[in-house]
Amino acid sequence: MKEKSFNMKHRREDFQILFCDIHEALLAQSQTVSLSALRTNIEILHHLGRHFGLPHHFLTVPVQGKPGKLIDELLRFQTESNTHYRYVADPFLTPDFESRLRVNVRRTLIICGFSAEVGVYFTAISAVHSGFRVIIPVDCIGSRSLRTESVALRQLESAGVEIISLSTLAALMEPDFSTEAGQFVLKQMGCIKS
């Protein structure tokens, strides 16, 4: 019975994805997950989201005084309506951000990006306080320090954020591997980098 309730609260029809500061110059600073693995895993998350029709949002901050540019794998999917520019750590403090998330009427927010202690952390904490269920695939976030990332992840878990692997998240999107969608999920899972 417990397993059924676990699956009931994880319906992909309730998911939307937030890509937080997926800028090459920032991802390259990660010491916890390599740039290559981050790029691959974030792209896999994006493929899963597109396959299942999940809304995508892109958070961006200035990098070296210029508007942050998404990594090439995501750039063509960025539009004015799904991109949120900000100059503060917590995007929920910027006008219209929360209302743009709520338009989708999806209560589970999947957050990935850089850095675990700032962009991901503040976004996830405020999302929980705003009533969203938050999932962070740990192999899709990076940090400059394992020590500080570990602290951030413990605090996020204490606040109710679910920290899981990208493989687990993929299986939540389609747990029946005998289906065509399940076969797609298995193929994506086989490409995840650690």
Compile the SSE list and pairings.
Blueprint: H1 2-8, E1 15-20, H2 24-27, H3 35-51, E2 56-60, E3 62-63, E4 66-67, H4 72-75, E5 83-85, H5 97-102, E6 108-114, H6 116-129, E7 133-137, E8 141-142, H7 146-158, E9 162-164, H8 166-173, H9 180-189
Parallel strand pairs: 1-2, 1-6, 2-5, 6-7, 6-8, 7-9
Antiparallel strand pairs: 3-4
Helix pairs in contact: 3-9, 6-7, 8-9
Low-confidence stretches: 1-8
Question: What is the number of helical segments per DSSP (H or I, 4+ residues)?
Answer: 9
Could you report the average pLDDT, rounded to the nearest whole number?
92
User: What is the 3D form?
Assistant: globular
H and E order: HEHHEEEHEHEHEEHEHH
Query: Share of helix among residues?
Result: 40-55%
Count every beta strand, where a strand is a DSSP E run of 2 or more residues. 9
- Taking the alpha carbons of the first and last residues, their distance comes to 32 Å
Which assembly state applies to the chains in this document?
Answer: single chain
- Provide the structure class: alpha/beta
Strand percentage? 15-25%
From the alpha carbons, calculate the radius of gyration and give it in angstroms.
16 Å
Main pleated-sheet profile: 7 strands, parallel
